[in-house]
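Students often ask why inverse folding is considered easier than folding. One informal answer: many sequences map to the same fold, so there is more than one right answer. In these notes we will look at a single instance of the problem. The structure comes first.
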């Protein structure tokens, strides 16, 4: 059980765990962090690192010390926006905005 005052990061911690377990790494584009390290009970581990490269934030993902994936935060945000645009046709946008 987690408890604490509002704004202390309880929900963020749960989102981090859920995103890692579900391999939904693109969601880390919306979280500010330096390094996240998760170790499973079987000794396997995942490290996510956020670095600044050429004036852009880059997220690096390593599993068991081997580089597996990297992406720019900007790319992740653009991808999610495109997904949202596909889910909601433009002709419905004004109706959705009213709701």
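Output (designed amino acids):
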């Amino acid at each position: 059980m987690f408890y604490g005052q509002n704004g202390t990061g309880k929900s963020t911690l749960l989102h981090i765990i859920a995103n890692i377990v579900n391999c939904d790494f693109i969601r880390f584009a919306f979280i500010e962090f330096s390094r996240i390290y998760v170790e499973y009970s079987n000794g396997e581990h995942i490290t996510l690192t956020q670095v600044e490269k050429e004036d852009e934030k880059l997220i690096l993902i390593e599993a068991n010390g081997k580089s597996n994936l990297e992406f720019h935060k900007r790319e992740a945000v653009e991808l999610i926006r495109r997904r949202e645009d596909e889910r909601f046709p433009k002709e419905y946008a004004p109706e959705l905005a009213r709701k």
